[in-house]
Amino acid sequence: MRGWIGLAIIAGILYYLATETNKLDEPIAYVQDVYQSIERKINKATGTKIQKLDSRIPKLEADLANRLNGQELAEMKKVLTDGNTLDDFKAEYCQSSKARHGVFSLDNLRYICDKL
Q1: What is the pTM of this model?
Q2: Among the residues of 68-105, which ranges form H helices?
Q3: What does the mean pLDDT of the chain come to?
């Protein structure tokens, strides 16, 4: 009986730390990133997917080469590496007009989101 009470107290403390404080935000984000990377690796290694050829990406790269500076261009190449990173970028920065990016200027971010 004592074991169950102790387990309930520990679970309650963890629940409180995870929901009411920000002490576990960093470890939770790290675990989620690891989980997503493992999931992507497994998806690449198993099964086949129908891949849609997208001709917009090379055109976008050529268009952005004239507009972006070197640091922004390097960051954009990271974003355009595969469909998952592109989808993550769209979900994080293109859904809200108040989104800010550490590398891209606000005008360039809006331009990229419009082109995607």
Answers
A1: 0.50
A2: 70-79, 83-89
A3: 81
